[in-house]
Write a structure and sequence with these properties.
The structure holds two protein chains of two kinds.
Chain A lengths: L5 H6 L6 E4 L1 H6 L1 H16 L4 E2 L10 H5 L3 H17 L4 E4 L2 H10 L8 E4 H10 L14 E4 L13 H8 L4 E3 L29 H10 L5 E4 L2 H13 L7 E4 H8 L3
Parallel strand pairs in A: 1-2, 1-3, 3-4, 5-6, 5-7, 7-8
Chain B lengths: L4 H28 L11 H13 L8 H30 L5 H5 L1 H29 L13 H33 L18 H4 L4 H25 L7 H10 L13 H11 L26 H9 L5 H5 L1 H4 L6 H22 L9 H4 L3 H5 L6 H5 L6 H14 L6 H13 L23
Helix pairs in contact in B: 1-3, 1-8, 1-14, 2-9, 3-5, 5-6, 6-8, 9-11, 11-14, 14-18
The chains are: A alpha/beta, B mainly alpha.
Chain lengths: 259, 444
């Protein structure tokens, strides 16, 4: 199957229902690419007319802005806004909470106004509208916990959408002690993903992984490619990668419905 | 009424206390106004609701129930008992005794009774707070930035509040004993559900001694309050005043949103298109990008610093601090306040344009602290009065990067990649859609 790009649709005179903003991790990171594919499978299954920007997409600018480089952020953002407005984009979905936050909350100050949804909210809306159903029972009885991405949770007050998707899977859901508004960071935000951590006595992702593992889960679910990297590294560090899987919300839904 | 020398002394003390307080508050307002302009007066209805919920209603305090409930004892006690201060002032000025009693009748008994119960709860709350700080030694009260002065400050506040409440109860107990002995001046007024149990201490004293103790407690209570009022201007305890406006002026945006820099937008637009006419109403560019010292922060960020009561909830949830890094959001706020007070003192002593060659960055807050932040917003969520340490951290990072090019190596590489490859990693933009080349199994 083919993933349509905005330029292909535009030349055919078509407008998609949503733009799927893949993000840099979703495009290049091998593990996050699987999340991207899971989102695409869901979109196809629910017959959502979508497109991606493909090679025209750029970084949203989030890591540059949080690392203090406002010039680089604004150059990147203004370029993206020009591109998005050129295609007349109205609605954007993305599987990255950092892109989500930046596009939704920060682009309006620079003249870019779009309806932006995190994939967990969008997939929930597909269920609500009856466009998607969970059929298989691949995760029946599995013990799952959810790690709140900071930019989805505290950053934008979205706590229930990912949980409501997990609840559809007939699993045993367990909450970590630090969850929702008090969720503990994976350690990747604010540019940390791209630098060595400062001197300390522990890495943040190890602290969070230990908390998740204390619940003896089969699966740690999350909704952010950076959290995915940090938690996966944490699980490897604890030699638990055989026993415990780290999966994105989109992967859970895609696998549950055997897409 | 018997107006005498005592009333004159009282008046002098009262006026002096209030004048001194006014001077102190004006200094604080002057210092806060050293910050940059920032608009925080939109969405007024939402601001009032937030203030009622968070400041008046203590909604974020009770997230930690033990400290939260004890704090409500002290908070309600302190606010309500201040009604008693109105009576003390009236009596002090007019030479009356319990001036409100004849006016309020039975309700007066109810008021005094409630004050006594709240005074007892306040003593209980403060005593448990002292135990938590000094005997149990809760970690967040003993971390690195809690040096000798912050710890002493906290203890002084708690001891003073206990002393004021004991004076209040002593005054009531001796008053009640004098009322019962039929003293003419001490007419029957008030209910004493708590202080009656102090009779075992004062019960056998002569009416002369009782009168002396009653008057001493009365004077101690009011002089104590006037002194305390001025002490808080130099203490973390100023939060009792600033908590309310500070919450009213809170950031109402999604926490994930960073404040835009219009000065940068202007330059970037000119860079992308030199012929572009940039809207001149946009703010004129500041002298520097980002924050190096307190003048580069906004007035709201400075108000945050004065509103901080060093409870340490921010630091106790900070992932960087939790894993042993230098960063402590509470220290960011304490440093900002210390530096602001230092700059204020310099202005008072050496004039407006004096520079001591120091700055908030480096002399107080080190880059190592700033770079440890994950921008996760746990600190801003935890703060009971909506202080935003993250905004200060990010503004100082902006200075480090845009004015000093002093980012850590990894971030400089990321900047290069974003600039040249449109991604934070070194991948070619033309490979961006490669993930879609693999076959995607689909039921469609």
């Amino acid at each position: 199957m083919k993933v349509p790009t905005m330029s292909q649709l535009a030349s055919a005179g078509e407008v998609p229902e949503v733009l799927f903003w893949v993000g840099c991790a979703g495009s290049f990171d091998e593990r996050a690419q699987k999340i991207t594919k899971a989102v695409v499978k869901i979109l196809i299954k629910a017959a959502v007319k979508f497109a991606v920007l493909g090679t025209e997409e750029s970084c949203s600018g989030d890591p540059a802005r949080r690392s203090g480089n406002e010039f680089l952020f604004q150059m990147t953002a203004l370029g993206n806004i020009q591109l998005l407005d050129g295609y007349g984009v109205k609605k954007i979905i993305t599987a990255c909470p950092h892109c989500f936050n930046t596009l939704k909350n920060e682009y309006p100050d620079l003249g870019g106004n779009y309806e932006v949804m995190h994939h967990s909210s969008f997939i929930q809306s597909l269920f609500d509208d009856g466009r998607l159903k969970v059929e298989g029972g691949a995760f029946k009885g599995k013990k799952i916990t959810f790690h709140d991405p900071c930019y989805l949770g505290r950053g934008n007050n979205i706590y229930e959408a990912p949980r409501s998707l997990i609840e559809k899977l007939d699993v045993s859901f367990v909450e970590m002690k630090r969850s929702k508004a008090t969720g503990f960071c994976c350690g990747a935000g604010g540019g940390q993903m791209f630098k060595e951590p400062e001197k300390g006595n522990k890495d943040v992702n190890i602290e969070r992984t230990e908390e998740a593992l204390s619940l003896n889960p089969d699966i740690i679910a999350t909704g952010c490619p950076f959290c995915m990297t940090m938690m996966t590294d944490g699980i490897k560090n604890k030699n638990k990668e055989e026993k415990v899987k780290v999966l994105d919300i989109a992967e859970l839904i895609a696998n549950a419905t055997d897409l | 009424m018997n107006f005498g020398i005592g009333n004159i002394i009282f008046l002098i003390l009262l006026v002096a206390g209030i004048i001194l307080f006014t001077i102190n508050v004006r200094t604080i307002i002057r210092n806060i106004n050293l910050g940059r302009e920032e608009k925080r007066t939109d969405q007024k209805k939402r601001r009032w609701m937030t203030m009622i919920r968070v400041a008046l209603g203590q909604s974020k305090m009770v997230v930690r129930p033990v400290a939260g409930i004890l704090h409500i004892f002290v908070y309600v006690g302190f606010i309500i008992i201040n009604i008693e201060v109105l009576e003390i002032i009236t009596d002090g000025v007019l030479g009356t005794h319990r001036a409100f009693a004849p006016l309020l009748g039975k309700f007066y008994d109810f008021l005094i009774g409630s004050f006594e119960i709240l005074a007892l709860l306040t003593i209980l709350g403060c005593a448990i707070f002292l135990i938590r700080r000094n005997i149990i030694r809760l970690k967040r009260f003993w971390s690195k930035e809690m040096t000798s002065w912050p710890r002493t400050d906290a203890n002084l506040i708690l001891f003073t509040e206990i002393a004021l409440m004991i004076a209040f109860l002593t005054m009531n107990c001796t008053d009640q004993l004098l009322q019962n002995s039929g003293s003419e001046h001490y007419f029957k007024a008030g209910a004493f559900p708590v202080s009656q149990y102090l009779n075992f201490i004062f019960g056998n004293m002569s009416s002369g001694t009782l009168e002396f103790i009653e008057r001493s407690a009365w004077w101690f209570h009011i002089i104590g309050i006037l002194a305390f009022l001025n002490y808080i201007c130099y203490s973390k305890h100023f939060h009792i005043i600033l908590a309310f406006p500070n919450v009213w002026y809170s950031n109402l945006n999604a926490k994930g949103k960073m404040v835009n820099m219009p000065s940068v937008t202007k330059e970037v637009k000119l860079m992308l298109d030199p012929s572009a006419v940039v809207n001149e109403t946009a703010n004129t560019p500041p002298l520097k990008f980002g924050a190096k010292d307190i003048q580069d922060l906004t007035w709201k960020q400075l108000m945050d610093a004065y509103s901080c009561t060093e409870c340490g909830r921010c630091t106790s949830v900070c992932p960087a601090n939790h894993t042993g890094k230098l960063l402590s959001p509470r220290k960011i706020m304490m440093d900002t306040r210390d530096r602001l007070q230092e700059v204020g003192k310099n202005i008072d002593k050496k004039g407006k344009d004096f520079s001591d060659g120091k700055s908030l960055l480096n002399d107080y807050i080190t880059p190592e602290e700033l770079w440890a932040c994950t921008s996760c917003n746990a600190c801003t969520d935890a703060c009971p009065v909506n202080i935003d340490p993250l905004a200060i951290i990010l503004d100082m990072r902006r200075f480090l990067v845009m004015e000093q090019s002093a980012a850590p190596q990894g971030l400089n590489m990321m900047f290069n990649n974003v600039e040249n490859n449109q991604a934070p990693w070194q991948f070619s933009p033309s490979d961006r859609l490669n993930w879609a080349q693999d076959e995607i199994k689909s039921s469609v």
